[in-house]
Amino acid sequence: MGWGNLFFSLVITCSAALITYNIIISANASLNQDFPGSSSTTTKSFKDSAEEEDPILKMPTHLSSSSNKRRKTRLFHTAVTSSDSIYNTWQCRVMYYWFNKHKTDNPNSDHDMGGFTRILHSGHPDKFMDEIPTFVAQPLPDGIDQGYIVLNRPWAFVQWLQQTKIEEDYILMSEPDHILVKPIPNLSIDGKGAAFPFFYIEPKKYEAPLRKFFPKERGPITNIDPIGNSPVIVGKDSLKKIAPTWMNVSLAMKKDPEADKAFGWVLEMYAYAVASALHGVGNILHKEFMIQPPWDTAIGKAYIIHYTYGCDYDLQGKMTYGKIGEWRFDKRSYDNIWPPRNISMPPPGVPESVVTLVKMVNEATANIPDWGS
Question: How far apart are CA 89 and CA 87, in angstroms?
Answer without folding.
Answer: 6
